[in-house]
Amino acid sequence: MCVLTSIYTQIKSIANKFGIDIVRYRPIKIEDLIEDPFNVLEFVIFYYLVSSAPFSFVQIGANDGVRWDPLHDLILKHHLVGLLVEPLPDMFEQLKKNYVSESQLSFENVAIATENGTQTLFRVKPNANVPDYAHGWASFDKNHLREFNQFIQEVQVPTLTIRSLLQKHKINHITLLQVDTEGYDYEIIKMFFDELEFPEIINYEFRHLSRNDNLECRRLLIDNGYRFIDYTAWDTLAIRGVSPAH
User: Fold this and answer.
1) How far apart are CA 155 and CA 111, in angstroms?
2) Residue 201 falls within a domain, yes or no?
């Protein structure tokens, strides 16, 4: 029960930032969390949307916009304004098709890197007989894909720095940064901070980070005023500052 209490305490702490008090009126059972998990990301986004503050997002590693995507349903439900970045050309085309009805969205077919130009990206072949979650996997580090070594393909992709990306799309405010870059998430977050861009919410995948990068990423978040929670076995949600309603 100590683990469940810890989860409840962290969720309650995040809710309190928005002036909301969560009261546990009955014992939390583990089967409740499995069958009806609490979507912390949706909860946080909703309370930003009902405030008077503007809301916009940047998604790095958008894939096709559907597969294992925590933002897909929320974008369609709330018509969120944002920029989606995906380097693989086939995934990028599918991404645009999957959001064809959302005219408020912008798209960029690049990888984020330390320099503008081109770079080799390693990916799982599009027609490979692999589990569904691996389709669209890509990394600058070939070793990251070693599980599917026989299906690896090299592709040359255009690259942009964070500064160039934000300047190109005239972005001067980011409420939510969504990152899923197969082990490159920490580097992406550092790049934003190096440009003095501190999104109010950061949602990133920690599962593929090395232990050292995972610890360093958490330390970086703490040093820059973020509180965070691992709300799934894969994802960390971090919030900076106070509620927009206050």
Assistant:
1) 11
2) yes
Q: Which domain holds residue 30?
A: 1-38
Of 75, 77, 68, the closest CA to residue 105 belongs to 75
Give me the sheet containing 82-85, strands edge to edge. 105-108, 82-85, 57-60, 176-179, 201-205, 235-240, 226-230
Q: Please give the model's pTM, rounded to 2 decimal places.
A: 0.83
Q: Which residues lie closer than 8 Å to 136 by C-beta, 6 or more apart?
A: 63, 64, 67, 88, 91, 123, 124
Q: 3-state class of 22 per DSSP?
A: coil
Task: State pLDDT tens for residues 150-171.
Answer: 999 999 999 999 999 999 999 9
19 and 92 belong to one structural domain: no
